[in-house]
Protein backbone atom coordinates (compact mmCIF):
# COMPACT_ATOMS: atom_id res chain seq x y z
CA UNK A 1 0.00 0.00 0.00
CA UNK A 2 3.05 2.24 -0.05
CA UNK A 3 3.34 2.62 -3.82
CA UNK A 4 1.34 4.89 -6.07
CA UNK A 5 -1.58 3.14 -7.66
CA UNK A 6 -4.45 4.25 -9.83
CA UNK A 7 -6.65 4.01 -6.73
CA UNK A 8 -5.07 7.03 -5.08
CA UNK A 9 -2.98 5.11 -2.53
CA UNK A 10 0.31 6.76 -1.70
CA UNK A 11 3.00 6.76 0.94
CA UNK A 12 2.83 9.51 3.52
CA UNK A 13 6.13 11.03 2.46
CA UNK A 14 4.91 11.18 -1.12
CA UNK A 15 1.65 12.69 0.02
CA UNK A 16 3.35 15.45 1.99
CA UNK A 17 5.79 16.33 -0.79
CA UNK A 18 3.19 16.77 -3.51
CA UNK A 19 1.69 20.13 -4.42
CA UNK A 20 -2.08 20.55 -4.32
CA UNK A 21 -2.14 20.39 -8.12
CA UNK A 22 -0.21 17.14 -8.09
CA UNK A 23 -2.74 15.79 -5.63
CA UNK A 24 -5.49 16.79 -8.02
CA UNK A 25 -6.72 19.55 -5.71
CA UNK A 26 -7.26 23.29 -6.25
CA UNK A 27 -5.07 25.59 -4.20
CA UNK A 28 -7.97 27.51 -2.68
CA UNK A 29 -9.97 24.37 -2.03
CA UNK A 30 -10.64 23.35 1.59
CA UNK A 31 -9.83 19.77 2.55
CA UNK A 32 -10.22 17.51 5.54
CA UNK A 33 -7.19 15.53 6.66
CA UNK A 34 -8.23 12.37 8.46
CA UNK A 35 -5.95 10.08 10.45
CA UNK A 36 -7.52 6.73 11.18
CA UNK A 37 -6.11 4.36 13.75
CA UNK A 38 -7.52 0.90 14.39
CA UNK A 39 -8.05 0.52 18.13
CA UNK A 40 -6.14 -2.34 19.70
CA UNK A 41 -5.07 -3.66 16.33
CA UNK A 42 -2.02 -5.42 17.74
CA UNK A 43 -4.26 -7.80 19.63
CA UNK A 44 -5.61 -9.09 16.33
CA UNK A 45 -2.08 -9.93 15.17
CA UNK A 46 -1.09 -11.35 18.55
CA UNK A 47 -4.15 -13.40 19.25
CA UNK A 48 -5.78 -14.14 15.91
CA UNK A 49 -2.61 -14.19 13.79
CA UNK A 50 -0.88 -12.05 11.17
CA UNK A 51 -2.96 -13.35 8.26
CA UNK A 52 -6.10 -12.09 10.00
CA UNK A 53 -4.34 -8.78 10.73
CA UNK A 54 -3.34 -8.32 7.09
CA UNK A 55 -6.83 -9.02 5.83
CA UNK A 56 -8.21 -6.57 8.33
CA UNK A 57 -5.82 -3.87 7.06
CA UNK A 58 -6.64 -4.53 3.40
CA UNK A 59 -10.34 -4.34 4.10
CA UNK A 60 -9.93 -1.14 6.07
CA UNK A 61 -7.98 0.42 3.20
CA UNK A 62 -10.70 -0.61 0.76
CA UNK A 63 -13.44 0.79 2.96
CA UNK A 64 -11.53 4.06 3.27
CA UNK A 65 -11.23 4.32 -0.52
CA UNK A 66 -14.94 3.68 -0.96
CA UNK A 67 -15.77 6.27 1.69
CA UNK A 68 -13.40 8.93 0.32
CA UNK A 69 -14.71 8.95 -3.24
CA UNK A 70 -12.72 9.40 -6.46
CA UNK A 71 -10.82 12.55 -5.48
CA UNK A 72 -9.62 11.46 -2.05
CA UNK A 73 -6.01 10.41 -1.55
CA UNK A 74 -5.13 7.58 0.82
CA UNK A 75 -1.84 6.68 2.47
CA UNK A 76 -0.75 4.08 4.97
CA UNK A 77 1.08 5.97 7.72
CA UNK A 78 2.00 3.25 10.18
CA UNK A 79 1.21 -0.40 10.85
CA UNK A 80 -2.37 0.24 11.72
CA UNK A 81 -2.82 3.90 10.79
CA UNK A 82 -4.15 5.42 7.62
CA UNK A 83 -4.32 9.01 6.38
CA UNK A 84 -6.77 10.47 3.89
CA UNK A 85 -7.00 13.89 2.33
CA UNK A 86 -10.51 14.53 1.20
CA UNK A 87 -11.87 17.56 -0.70
CA UNK A 88 -15.50 18.49 -1.24
CA UNK A 89 -16.47 19.09 2.39
CA UNK A 90 -18.47 22.25 3.16
CA UNK A 91 -16.92 23.12 6.52
CA UNK A 92 -15.42 21.65 9.72
CA UNK A 93 -18.82 20.43 10.91
CA UNK A 94 -19.24 18.62 7.60
CA UNK A 95 -15.81 17.03 8.00
CA UNK A 96 -16.66 15.87 11.53
CA UNK A 97 -19.97 14.41 10.30
CA UNK A 98 -18.12 12.50 7.57
CA UNK A 99 -15.59 11.27 10.13
CA UNK A 100 -18.44 9.99 12.31
CA UNK A 101 -19.90 8.20 9.30
CA UNK A 102 -16.48 6.67 8.63
CA UNK A 103 -16.10 5.56 12.25
CA UNK A 104 -19.40 3.64 12.06
CA UNK A 105 -18.58 2.24 8.64
CA UNK A 106 -15.25 0.86 9.79
CA UNK A 107 -16.80 -0.65 12.92
CA UNK A 108 -18.97 -2.96 10.80
CA UNK A 109 -18.08 -6.61 11.33
CA UNK A 110 -15.83 -8.36 8.84
CA UNK A 111 -15.64 -12.09 8.29
CA UNK A 112 -12.10 -13.43 8.38
CA UNK A 113 -11.43 -17.16 8.17
CA UNK A 114 -14.85 -17.99 9.47
CA UNK A 115 -14.52 -15.59 12.41
CA UNK A 116 -16.48 -12.39 12.69
CA UNK A 117 -14.19 -9.59 13.71
CA UNK A 118 -15.20 -6.11 14.72
CA UNK A 119 -12.72 -3.43 15.52
CA UNK A 120 -13.34 0.19 16.40
CA UNK A 121 -11.27 3.05 15.08
CA UNK A 122 -10.15 6.39 16.44
CA UNK A 123 -10.08 9.33 14.05
CA UNK A 124 -8.19 12.60 14.34
CA UNK A 125 -8.98 15.27 11.79
CA UNK A 126 -8.16 18.79 10.74
CA UNK A 127 -9.82 21.02 8.19
CA UNK A 128 -8.44 23.94 6.24
CA UNK A 129 -7.67 25.63 2.96
CA UNK A 130 -4.51 24.53 1.20
CA UNK A 131 -3.80 28.16 0.30
CA UNK A 132 -3.61 29.00 4.01
CA UNK A 133 -2.14 25.82 5.49
CA UNK A 134 0.46 23.50 4.06
CA UNK A 135 -0.47 19.84 3.91
CA UNK A 136 2.28 19.30 6.49
CA UNK A 137 0.57 21.73 8.91
CA UNK A 138 -2.81 20.09 8.34
CA UNK A 139 -1.29 16.70 9.08
CA UNK A 140 0.38 18.01 12.23
CA UNK A 141 -3.00 19.27 13.43
CA UNK A 142 -4.75 16.03 12.56
CA UNK A 143 -2.03 14.27 14.52
CA UNK A 144 -2.65 16.50 17.57
CA UNK A 145 -6.31 15.55 17.32
CA UNK A 146 -5.39 11.88 16.95
CA UNK A 147 -3.29 12.01 20.09
CA UNK A 148 -6.25 13.49 21.96
CA UNK A 149 -8.40 10.65 20.58
CA UNK A 150 -5.87 8.09 21.75
CA UNK A 151 -5.94 9.43 25.29
CA UNK A 152 -9.55 8.23 25.47
CA UNK A 153 -10.44 4.56 25.40
CA UNK A 154 -10.90 4.78 21.63
CA UNK A 155 -13.81 4.60 19.21
CA UNK A 156 -13.97 8.39 18.95
CA UNK A 157 -13.57 11.27 16.50
CA UNK A 158 -11.52 14.28 17.56
CA UNK A 159 -10.94 17.40 15.49
CA UNK A 160 -8.11 19.85 15.87
CA UNK A 161 -8.89 22.90 17.95
CA UNK A 162 -7.03 25.40 20.08
CA UNK A 163 -8.31 23.49 23.15
CA UNK A 164 -5.71 20.88 22.45
CA UNK A 165 -3.07 23.55 22.93
CA UNK A 166 -4.49 24.58 26.30
CA UNK A 167 -4.47 20.95 27.44
CA UNK A 168 -0.74 21.02 26.79
CA UNK A 169 -0.58 24.05 29.06
CA UNK A 170 -2.17 22.15 31.91
CA UNK A 171 0.45 19.50 31.42
CA UNK A 172 3.30 21.91 32.04
CA UNK A 173 1.43 23.19 35.07
CA UNK A 174 1.32 19.62 36.36
CA UNK A 175 4.99 19.13 35.68
CA UNK A 176 5.86 22.28 37.60
CA UNK A 177 4.00 21.39 40.78
CA UNK A 178 4.21 17.62 41.03
CA UNK A 179 7.33 17.47 43.18
CA UNK A 180 5.86 19.97 45.63
CA UNK A 181 2.61 18.04 45.69
CA UNK A 182 4.40 15.08 47.20
CA UNK A 183 5.99 17.26 49.90
CA UNK A 184 2.77 19.16 50.55
CA UNK A 185 0.84 15.95 51.16
CA UNK A 186 -1.53 16.46 48.23
CA UNK A 187 -1.23 12.87 47.03
CA UNK A 188 -3.63 10.24 48.25
CA UNK A 189 -4.61 6.69 47.44
CA UNK A 190 -7.92 5.35 46.28
CA UNK A 191 -8.60 1.66 46.58
CA UNK A 192 -10.57 -0.56 44.23
CA UNK A 193 -11.73 -4.03 45.26
CA UNK A 194 -11.14 -7.17 43.23
CA UNK A 195 -13.92 -9.72 43.44
CA UNK A 196 -14.35 -13.46 42.93
CA UNK A 197 -17.19 -13.55 40.40
CA UNK A 198 -18.46 -16.92 41.62
CA UNK A 199 -19.29 -15.85 45.18
CA UNK A 200 -18.67 -12.10 45.42
CA UNK A 201 -15.76 -12.50 47.85
CA UNK A 202 -13.21 -9.69 48.10
CA UNK A 203 -9.89 -11.22 47.04
CA UNK A 204 -7.69 -8.15 46.63
CA UNK A 205 -7.58 -4.38 46.65
CA UNK A 206 -5.68 -2.21 44.18
CA UNK A 207 -4.05 1.04 45.30
CA UNK A 208 -4.49 3.84 42.74
CA UNK A 209 -2.76 7.15 43.23
CA UNK A 210 -4.63 10.49 43.11
CA UNK A 211 -3.59 14.11 43.36
CA UNK A 212 -5.75 16.62 45.18
CA UNK A 213 -4.57 19.56 43.08
CA UNK A 214 -5.22 22.99 44.61
CA UNK A 215 -6.68 24.51 41.43
CA UNK A 216 -7.39 21.61 39.05
CA UNK A 217 -9.26 19.45 41.59
CA UNK A 218 -8.86 15.71 42.12
CA UNK A 219 -6.66 14.32 39.35
CA UNK A 220 -6.65 10.67 38.28
CA UNK A 221 -3.42 8.74 37.84
CA UNK A 222 -3.49 9.06 34.06
CA UNK A 223 -3.16 12.83 34.33
CA UNK A 224 0.20 12.83 36.10
CA UNK A 225 1.87 9.43 36.36
CA UNK A 226 3.30 9.83 32.84
CA UNK A 227 4.67 13.26 33.74
CA UNK A 228 6.13 11.81 36.95
CA UNK A 229 7.91 9.15 34.90
CA UNK A 230 9.33 11.66 32.45
CA UNK A 231 10.59 13.98 35.17
CA UNK A 232 11.99 11.36 37.55
CA UNK A 233 9.48 12.24 40.31
CA UNK A 234 8.15 8.70 39.94
CA UNK A 235 10.89 7.32 42.24
CA UNK A 236 9.69 9.30 45.24
CA UNK A 237 6.07 8.99 44.22
CA UNK A 238 6.37 5.22 43.83
CA UNK A 239 8.03 4.86 47.21
CA UNK A 240 5.31 6.94 48.82
CA UNK A 241 2.58 4.80 47.19
CA UNK A 242 4.25 1.58 48.33
CA UNK A 243 4.64 2.80 51.93
CA UNK A 244 1.14 4.22 52.14
CA UNK A 245 -0.53 1.15 50.56
CA UNK A 246 1.29 -1.22 52.92
CA UNK A 247 0.52 0.96 55.94
CA UNK A 248 -3.16 0.90 55.00
CA UNK A 249 -3.09 -2.82 54.37
CA UNK A 250 -1.61 -3.50 57.81
CA UNK A 251 -4.32 -1.34 59.38
CA UNK A 252 -7.03 -3.31 57.54
CA UNK A 253 -5.43 -6.64 58.46
CA UNK A 254 -5.64 -5.59 62.11
CA UNK A 255 -9.23 -4.41 61.78
CA UNK A 256 -10.53 -7.35 59.70
CA UNK A 257 -8.35 -10.30 60.76
CA UNK A 258 -10.69 -12.89 59.23
CA UNK A 259 -10.32 -11.46 55.75
CA UNK A 260 -7.34 -12.55 53.69
CA UNK A 261 -6.72 -10.41 50.66
CA UNK A 262 -3.86 -9.08 48.58
CA UNK A 263 -2.78 -5.47 48.25
CA UNK A 264 -1.97 -4.58 44.64
CA UNK A 265 0.46 -1.79 43.92
CA UNK A 266 1.36 -0.46 40.46
CA UNK A 267 5.04 -0.06 39.72
CA UNK A 268 6.41 2.01 36.89
CA UNK A 269 9.14 0.61 34.61
CA UNK A 270 11.39 3.36 35.95
CA UNK A 271 11.13 1.92 39.49
CA UNK A 272 11.57 -1.56 38.14
CA UNK A 273 15.10 -0.92 36.92
CA UNK A 274 16.19 0.55 40.27
CA UNK A 275 18.46 -2.06 41.91
CA UNK A 276 17.30 -0.84 45.36
CA UNK A 277 13.64 -1.64 44.72
CA UNK A 278 13.62 -5.22 46.15
CA UNK A 279 15.34 -4.04 49.36
CA UNK A 280 12.85 -1.20 49.70
CA UNK A 281 9.91 -3.57 49.25
CA UNK A 282 11.34 -5.99 51.82
CA UNK A 283 11.88 -3.16 54.28
CA UNK A 284 8.34 -1.78 53.89
CA UNK A 285 6.79 -5.23 54.32
CA UNK A 286 8.81 -5.89 57.48
CA UNK A 287 8.04 -2.45 58.87
CA UNK A 288 4.30 -3.18 58.56
CA UNK A 289 4.48 -6.80 59.65
CA UNK A 290 3.15 -8.04 56.32
CA UNK A 291 3.99 -11.32 54.64
CA UNK A 292 5.34 -11.17 51.09
CA UNK A 293 2.31 -13.13 49.89
CA UNK A 294 0.06 -10.23 50.84
CA UNK A 295 1.58 -7.88 48.26
CA UNK A 296 1.28 -7.96 44.49
CA UNK A 297 3.32 -5.70 42.24
CA UNK A 298 1.69 -4.79 38.91
CA UNK A 299 3.84 -3.82 35.97
CA UNK A 300 3.24 -2.80 32.35
CA UNK A 301 5.41 -2.25 29.34
CA UNK A 302 8.44 -4.10 30.54
CA UNK A 303 9.69 -4.17 26.98
CA UNK A 304 9.81 -0.40 26.89
CA UNK A 305 11.72 -0.18 30.17
CA UNK A 306 14.95 1.80 29.83
CA UNK A 307 16.98 -1.27 30.74
CA UNK A 308 15.10 -4.47 30.22
CA UNK A 309 17.78 -6.78 31.63
CA UNK A 310 17.92 -4.78 34.86
CA UNK A 311 14.12 -4.86 35.05
CA UNK A 312 14.09 -8.63 34.73
CA UNK A 313 16.73 -8.94 37.47
CA UNK A 314 14.58 -6.86 39.83
CA UNK A 315 11.52 -8.96 38.95
CA UNK A 316 13.39 -12.15 39.84
CA UNK A 317 14.51 -10.67 43.15
CA UNK A 318 10.97 -9.57 44.01
CA UNK A 319 9.75 -13.01 43.11
CA UNK A 320 12.36 -14.60 45.35
CA UNK A 321 10.99 -12.52 48.21
CA UNK A 322 7.64 -14.23 47.56
CA UNK A 323 5.84 -11.25 46.07
CA UNK A 324 3.16 -11.88 43.48
CA UNK A 325 3.89 -10.28 40.10
CA UNK A 326 1.16 -9.28 37.66
CA UNK A 327 1.28 -7.95 34.11
CA UNK A 328 -1.22 -5.12 33.89
CA UNK A 329 -3.23 -4.05 30.83
CA UNK A 330 -2.47 -7.37 29.19
CA UNK A 331 -3.29 -7.68 25.49
CA UNK A 332 -2.29 -4.16 24.55
CA UNK A 333 0.69 -5.49 22.70
CA UNK A 334 3.73 -4.65 24.77
CA UNK A 335 4.00 -7.93 26.56
CA UNK A 336 3.89 -10.62 23.94
CA UNK A 337 2.80 -14.03 25.01
CA UNK A 338 6.08 -15.68 24.17
CA UNK A 339 8.16 -13.17 26.11
CA UNK A 340 5.96 -13.74 29.11
CA UNK A 341 7.28 -17.27 29.48
CA UNK A 342 10.72 -15.94 30.32
CA UNK A 343 9.44 -13.74 33.15
CA UNK A 344 8.70 -14.73 36.75
CA UNK A 345 5.09 -13.64 36.42
CA UNK A 346 2.16 -15.10 38.36
CA UNK A 347 -0.82 -13.20 37.04
CA UNK A 348 -2.11 -11.39 33.97
CA UNK A 349 -4.73 -8.66 34.12
CA UNK A 350 -6.76 -8.45 30.94
CA UNK A 351 -6.90 -4.85 29.72
CA UNK A 352 -10.29 -3.30 30.24
CA UNK A 353 -10.72 -2.49 26.56
CA UNK A 354 -11.31 -6.22 25.93
CA UNK A 355 -13.74 -6.47 28.80
CA UNK A 356 -15.97 -3.39 28.48
CA UNK A 357 -18.10 -4.79 25.63
CA UNK A 358 -17.82 -8.42 26.63
CA UNK A 359 -21.16 -10.10 26.22
CA UNK A 360 -21.97 -8.07 23.11
CA UNK A 361 -18.75 -8.07 21.07
CA UNK A 362 -17.85 -11.55 19.73
CA UNK A 363 -14.29 -10.49 18.87
CA UNK A 364 -13.62 -9.62 22.48
CA UNK A 365 -15.05 -12.98 23.54
CA UNK A 366 -12.63 -14.72 21.17
CA UNK A 367 -9.71 -12.72 22.54
CA UNK A 368 -10.58 -13.24 26.20
CA UNK A 369 -11.16 -16.94 25.59
CA UNK A 370 -7.69 -17.20 24.06
CA UNK A 371 -6.16 -15.34 27.00
CA UNK A 372 -7.90 -17.60 29.52
CA UNK A 373 -6.59 -20.72 27.73
CA UNK A 374 -3.16 -19.23 27.54
CA UNK A 375 -3.09 -18.34 31.21
CA UNK A 376 -4.09 -21.90 32.04
CA UNK A 377 -1.38 -23.30 29.80
CA UNK A 378 1.27 -21.13 31.47
CA UNK A 379 -0.13 -21.77 34.96
CA UNK A 380 -1.01 -18.11 35.48
CA UNK A 381 -3.82 -16.45 37.40
CA UNK A 382 -6.03 -14.28 35.25
CA UNK A 383 -7.96 -11.18 36.27
CA UNK A 384 -10.33 -9.05 34.21
CA UNK A 385 -10.33 -5.27 34.55
CA UNK A 386 -13.10 -2.88 33.56
CA UNK A 387 -16.16 -4.99 34.38
CA UNK A 388 -18.95 -2.45 34.07
CA UNK A 389 -21.94 -4.62 33.16
CA UNK A 390 -23.63 -7.75 34.45
CA UNK A 391 -23.39 -9.12 30.90
CA UNK A 392 -19.60 -8.82 31.00
CA UNK A 393 -19.44 -10.49 34.43
CA UNK A 394 -21.59 -13.40 33.23
CA UNK A 395 -19.52 -13.82 30.08
CA UNK A 396 -16.29 -13.83 32.11
CA UNK A 397 -17.66 -16.54 34.36
CA UNK A 398 -18.70 -18.56 31.33
CA UNK A 399 -15.18 -18.23 29.91
CA UNK A 400 -13.60 -19.32 33.19
CA UNK A 401 -12.19 -15.98 34.28
CA UNK A 402 -13.33 -15.60 37.87
CA UNK A 403 -11.37 -12.71 39.31
CA UNK A 404 -12.45 -9.25 38.30
CA UNK A 405 -12.35 -5.57 38.99
CA UNK A 406 -14.54 -2.82 37.61
CA UNK A 407 -17.19 -0.23 38.23
CA UNK A 408 -19.93 -2.87 38.51
CA UNK A 409 -18.10 -4.42 41.44
CA UNK A 410 -16.73 -1.27 43.03
CA UNK A 411 -15.20 2.04 41.94
CA UNK A 412 -11.92 3.25 43.46
CA UNK A 413 -12.66 5.01 46.77
CA UNK A 414 -10.82 6.41 49.78
CA UNK A 415 -9.82 3.86 52.41
CA UNK A 416 -12.63 4.77 54.82
CA UNK A 417 -15.32 4.18 52.22
CA UNK A 418 -14.14 0.64 51.63
CA UNK A 419 -14.67 -0.44 55.24
CA UNK A 420 -18.26 -1.73 54.93
CA UNK A 421 -17.24 -3.99 52.04
CA UNK A 422 -14.18 -5.28 53.91
CA UNK A 423 -16.22 -5.84 57.05
CA UNK A 424 -18.69 -7.99 55.09
CA UNK A 425 -15.89 -9.65 53.13
CA UNK A 426 -18.07 -9.87 50.05
CA UNK A 427 -20.36 -7.91 47.76
CA UNK A 428 -23.92 -7.39 48.94
CA UNK A 429 -26.42 -9.69 47.18
CA UNK A 430 -28.06 -8.47 43.98
CA UNK A 431 -25.00 -7.13 42.18
CA UNK A 432 -23.95 -10.43 40.66
CA UNK A 433 -26.54 -12.97 39.52
CA UNK A 434 -26.17 -16.40 41.18
CA UNK A 435 -23.56 -18.63 39.58
CA UNK A 436 -25.42 -21.35 37.68
CA UNK A 437 -22.43 -23.45 36.77
P1 LIG B 1 -4.44 0.22 36.07
O1 LIG B 1 -3.41 -0.27 37.01
O2 LIG B 1 -4.81 -0.67 34.95
O3 LIG B 1 -5.68 0.62 36.95
C1 LIG B 1 -7.00 0.47 36.54
C2 LIG B 1 -7.55 1.76 36.05
O4 LIG B 1 -8.83 1.51 35.50
C3 LIG B 1 -7.78 2.81 37.15
O5 LIG B 1 -7.60 4.09 36.57
C4 LIG B 1 -9.24 2.58 37.49
O6 LIG B 1 -9.85 3.71 38.06
C5 LIG B 1 -9.81 2.28 36.14
N1 LIG B 1 -11.02 1.45 36.22
C6 LIG B 1 -11.30 0.51 37.13
N2 LIG B 1 -12.48 -0.09 36.86
C7 LIG B 1 -12.94 0.49 35.74
C8 LIG B 1 -14.14 0.29 34.96
O7 LIG B 1 -14.99 -0.53 35.25
N3 LIG B 1 -14.29 1.07 33.87
C9 LIG B 1 -13.35 1.99 33.52
N4 LIG B 1 -13.58 2.71 32.43
N5 LIG B 1 -12.22 2.21 34.23
C10 LIG B 1 -12.02 1.46 35.33
P2 LIG B 1 -6.65 5.17 37.22
O8 LIG B 1 -6.76 5.13 38.71
O9 LIG B 1 -6.87 6.46 36.51
O10 LIG B 1 -5.21 4.64 36.88
C11 LIG B 1 -4.75 4.59 35.59
C12 LIG B 1 -3.42 3.91 35.51
O11 LIG B 1 -2.41 4.69 36.15
C13 LIG B 1 -3.39 2.57 36.24
O12 LIG B 1 -3.96 1.61 35.41
C14 LIG B 1 -1.91 2.40 36.47
O13 LIG B 1 -1.28 1.90 35.33
C15 LIG B 1 -1.45 3.82 36.70
N6 LIG B 1 -1.33 4.04 38.15
C16 LIG B 1 -2.28 4.24 39.09
N7 LIG B 1 -1.74 4.39 40.31
C17 LIG B 1 -0.41 4.24 40.14
C18 LIG B 1 0.72 4.27 41.03
O14 LIG B 1 0.60 4.42 42.25
N8 LIG B 1 1.96 4.10 40.48
C19 LIG B 1 2.14 3.89 39.15
N9 LIG B 1 3.37 3.73 38.67
N10 LIG B 1 1.11 3.87 38.29
C20 LIG B 1 -0.14 4.03 38.78
MG1 LIG C 1 -2.97 -1.89 37.94
MG1 LIG D 1 -4.88 -2.15 33.92
Overview of this protein structure:
The chain has 437 residues and is an alpha/beta fold. The chain has two domains: 12-160, Reverse transcriptase/Diguanylate cyclase domain (Alpha-Beta Plaits, 2-Layer Sandwich), CATH 3.30.70.270; 171-424, EAL domain (TIM Barrel). Helix content is 42%, strand content 22%. It has an eight-stranded mixed β-barrel with strand order 9-10-12-13-14-15-16-17. A six-stranded mixed β-sheet has the order 1-3-4-2-7-8. α8 (234-255) runs parallel beside α10. The longest helix is centred in the middle third of the chain and has 22 residues, at 162-183.
Which descriptor suits the 3D outline? globular
Structural class: alpha/beta
Q: How many domains would you count in the coordinates?
A: 2
Largest sheet: 8 strands, mixed, barrel
> How large is the radius of gyration?
24 Å
Q: Reading side by side through the largest sheet, how are the strands ordered?
A: 9-10-12-13-14-15-16-17
End-to-end C-alpha gap:
49 Å
Specify the CATH architecture of the largest domain: Alpha-Beta Barrel
Q: What's the number of helices?
A: 15
What small-molecule ligands were found? ligand C2E, magnesium ion
